[in-house]
Amino acid sequence: MAGVDQLNQVFFDGVAEGQLRIQQCGDCGAYQFYPRVVCKLCGSEHVHWKVASGRGQVASFSVVRRGVSADFAAPYIVALIELEEGVTMMSHVVDVDPNQVISGMAVTLTFRTVGGADIRPVFIPASKS
Is residue 112 part of a domain? Predict the structure, then answer.
C-alpha cells in the first residue's frame, strides 16, 4: 500500500481491523490526527495510539459532481469530519443524498473501499447507524 510507513503503520493496521486509531499524548492528553512523532500541543514524545469513538460531525464538505475516473463516479462527498475527540480528518460521507448533507450533521464511522483501492474510514449519517 502506497504511503504506509513506520509512523502511520498502526493507523493502517487499525483500519484493516475495523478500527479508527488516533494518537493521544501521554503528558497533556491531547488527541491528534494525522500521526506525528511528537505531540502537536506540548511537544512531548509520549504519544500513543487510541481507538477513536467513530462519532463526529461534518465540519465542512464539498460535493464532487464531475468524476475523475470510473472508480470515483460523481457525485461523491469529500468532507472534513470533526471527531468527538476534537481532531479533524478528511474523509468521505457515504449512503446519503449529497443535497441532504449539511455542516454540523452528526456522522458515524464505517469502512469502505474508496476509489477501487484499499479499505478506508468513511462516515455515514448518524441517523443511519
Answer: yes
